[in-house]
Structure to design on (258 residues):
């Protein structure tokens, strides 16, 4: 008996067969197509598909007739240890930005429909705004979410939007306005706008790009302007420093979009 057959787990094998098959078909497959491709019984494929959908490894189309991979496996693959490596590399850069711009900043990554804050550095002064490490923020109403959506291939963006579940307090955005916002980010290479969560805050968000020019993370600074006698860096100065910080962490060093 070969080692590959010594410790068989038929149910696990069926699940992995389905995942591997769907990985080769980005547009998804119907249940009948999956049954035919794998040569298994309809009932066992049905049960396995239902579990994979329930565990969010597979998403079902709105009509319920097609199944495709979700981004959960992608998120898991980029959580540990790649995420740890990214955070380790990003923290010194973020700390330098915080000291130079006198503002806080945080690092976000896409995770199951929204943005997960994986690193955070407070500003050096007594005043500032910080996002809690481990917090989940909205995909559709934050600079972080918009930048992550904008800097993706069309297919991946559609999957991210399909997985999205509104967080508490999320401000909805019409589809046409979202499309215009994402196009603007792709043109500028960053996002800057007044926060939809807090008064007096201007969010600046810049993508950290992978070798293909897609955003693997986003660096965001919630800029707060001091109105006392302290003359800190301006919004424009902070934005340029954040762009430089994100560019230094990007793997696609040849791109102009940072």
């Amino acid at each position: 008996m070969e080692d590959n057959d010594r410790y068989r787990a038929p149910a696990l094998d069926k699940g992995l067969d389905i995942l591997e098959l769907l990985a080769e078909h980005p547009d998804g497959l119907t249940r009948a197509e999956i049954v035919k491709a794998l040569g298994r019984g309809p009932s066992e494929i049905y049960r396995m598909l239902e579990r994979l959908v329930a565990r969010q490894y597979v998403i079902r189309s709105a009509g319920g007739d097609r199944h495709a991979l979700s981004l959960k496996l992608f998120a898991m693959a980029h959580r540990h240890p790649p995420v740890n490596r990214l955070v380790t590399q990003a923290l010194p850069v973020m700390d330098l930005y915080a000291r130079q711009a006198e503002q806080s900043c945080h690092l976000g990554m896409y995770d199951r429909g929204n943005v997960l804050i994986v690193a955070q550095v407070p500003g050096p002064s007594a005043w500032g705004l910080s996002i809690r490490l481990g917090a989940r923020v909205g995909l559709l109403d934050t600079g972080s979410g918009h930048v992550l959506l904008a800097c993706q291939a069309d297919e991946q963006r559609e999957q991210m939007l399909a997985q999205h579940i509104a967080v508490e307090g999320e401000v909805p955005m019409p589809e046409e306005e979202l499309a215009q916002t994402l196009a603007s980010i792709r043109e500028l290479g960053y996002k800057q706008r007044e926060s939809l969560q807090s008064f007096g805050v201007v969010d600046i968000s810049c993508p950290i790009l992978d070798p293909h020019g897609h955003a693997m993370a986003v660096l965001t600074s919630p800029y707060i302007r001091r109105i006392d006698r302290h003359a800190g860096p301006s919004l424009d100065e902070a934005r340029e420093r954040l762009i430089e910080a994100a560019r230094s962490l990007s793997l696609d060093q040849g791109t102009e979009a940072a």
